[in-house]
Amino acid sequence: MPQAPLTCLQKLHIRGAYDDAPCSWIPILELLRLSPNLADLRIQNTSFVDADDVDENVVLPNLRRLKCTGGFLEGSSLRWLSAPGLETLTLSPSIFPNTEPGAIISFLRRSSPPLRELVVSYGYIGEQDFTWFALCTTMSLLDTVSHLELNSAMPHILDRLFTILERPPSNALPALHTLILRNVEPEISPGPSWNGLARALTSRLGKLRTVRVILADDEWTLPQEVRSLFAEFLEDGMDIYIGTEGFGGTNLLAAN
Description:
Layout: E1 11-15, E2 23-24, H1 26-33, E3 40-44, E4 47-49, E5 58-59, E6 65-69, E7 72-73, E8 81-82, E9 88-91, H2 101-111, E10 117-121, H3 131-138, E11 147-151, H4 155-165, E12 178-184, H5 192-203, E13 210-215, H6 224-235, E14 239-243
Parallel strand pairs: 1-3, 2-4, 3-6, 4-7, 5-8, 6-9, 9-10, 10-11, 11-12, 12-13, 13-14
Helix pairs in contact: 2-3, 4-5, 5-6
């Protein structure tokens, strides 16, 4: 391991295979410790085991983007990191089964970053937990987040999110102006989640400017009562899209 600071290193992408054996977190921490100017860290398809003999946190003062996807931060290895300048945080579902929710909370409390964008991609494996997010909003750890994106969240997760967003903006996510829900499954419709979303948007009128609900397939139709439910938000100037993504996607709110 080199001992001289890697001052020119600004972007680091650590990538493994899904079937790789877990590796030690210690050499990764040492590499990060030598990279004070690192701005972009991506950890993909990589599993780590605990580093119980680590004696201090690694502070990455210039880290702006942290993305952990497709791997397991086993034993809550986030507890060894601090990123006081972090602006974009992307987490994938596979970190949650082996990461204590408290590790994410502790990471945000320790870092106290000016976080602007939070992306949480759940996927279809493991139990989907949202306790950490609810606690983060209660503890005002996400007060600077203006862009929130959830991917493949199950209906009960979306319902919890909508309940949180029903609170006055001063009490939860006060800076939020963009909400994106990707790969939404049919179970959300025509059940109570549409009403929950409508109540959340009502609470956020004048604050939430852009809403995207990207459906998992293109075979959906929205009942007239659902379209009527959201008509007032369109009239108030909110940019709302409910439909599929990509070329040829149709906003079902505007469909005949």
